[in-house]
Amino acid sequence: MSSLIQWMLLRLALLLSSVGFFLSCWIIVPAPTMQLLPLGVGVPELSPWLLVLNAIPLGIAMLQAIPLALQGMHYSLLQRLVLGASLVGLFLSVLPLVQLPATEQRLAAAMVDELGKDYTAGISNEVLSKMRSHPFILADAFRGITLSPVRYTSGIPFAAPFDYAPFDYAPFDYAPFDYAQGKPLSMDIYRPLKIGHYPALVIIYGGGWQSGTPQHHADFSRYIAAQGYTVFAIAYRHAPRYQFPAQLDDVRAALTFIQQHATEYETDLNRIALLGRSAGGHLAMLAAYQSDTLPIRAVINYYGPFNLAEGYRKPPKPDPLNVRAVLEAFLGGSPDAVPEQYAKASPVSYVKRSLPPTLLIHGSRDHIVQVDFARDMCQRLRAVGNTSVLLEIPWAEHAFDTIFPGISNQVALYYTERFLAWALR
Description:
Blueprint: H1 3-25, H2 37-45, H3 47-70, H4 77-93, H5 95-115, H6 125-130, H7 138-143, E1 151-159, E2 185-191, E3 198-204, H8 218-226, E4 230-234, H9 246-260, E5 267-277, H10 279-288, E6 298-302, H11 308-313, H12 323-331, H13 339-344, E7 358-363, H14 371-383, E8 388-393, H15 407-423
Parallel strand pairs: 3-4, 3-5, 5-6, 6-7, 7-8
Antiparallel strand pairs: 1-2, 2-4
Helix pairs in contact: 1-3, 1-4, 3-4, 5-15, 9-10
């Protein structure tokens, strides 16, 4: 190999090893700012790709270094830099995969401990055959998760609450579809291709109660619909213009609409579950735990908050989202200023007997909603006799399922579909 080609390959290896090393560091380094949070969220989920990225420059450097070693010659400085950066990057990028087998065993045990060792026995073979065969499939991390065709209907209006200023409206003061007076709210609906009568999953997006649309995580909605569910992805009003309880009122209005149009959208009202992410997970739990809402069979909370006052008093470190500012915009002030708002808006305030079975999925490295709050909520629910499963993913950050074929989302999807099938069987 000519010296020029060797020189060019070594420079390429240096570039790749530098990029791989930089990205791999975010598997263990928490993101200090909102601008860097996507790295903290996405990099652990893409670790199989990082393995490849780090292996390429390592291979190039080794091919050049081995002949030198055989001749008793020393490595160049650049070769040492490439080898060092690539080896460290390789070590960091393999960490989630190394933790995966023990994590799968622990999560499987958590499901069995709470739901029973035969919890899948009541699920039909037809439903089981559509589910993922393993918690993590390496090929899917590279090629993506296959999505089957479904029927999709977007922008279905379900309410138009009056556009009052915060605290000036009465709960459930709706002008149905009166767009001249109110703020229109809509939902997207996903259904299996075959006309039928299906259990329903109502999905509530996250975004700090301040942003988001029903189109968020559309791949997940399509995947679940193809499993045999009618999926309703709903909208709600956003803070800070609309403060709590506007968002909860909107979720309940959506449930009322679903109840009124169950036949039209092929929904079995006796088999409805709620699922939310982050702020949406918080709203899903609040709605499911209300005594006067449409009966809910199960609720799934992906990394949503539970005790808002404690979340305010004990923010994460680092705090890339500025949790206190988000809570003040949502509730109208600090816990000292509006303590009743924090109490009414906290799912922990509604823990009692006979609540719907609850699945909590949380990353151990979450720097928006710390995992300690999920552990506490799970213990409180169990203490009064409720069914509650906490699945904790050690390498995952907040919003880990943004990467649909990522490691954490594959694991979460595997257990989510089994929990749903168990709860809505």
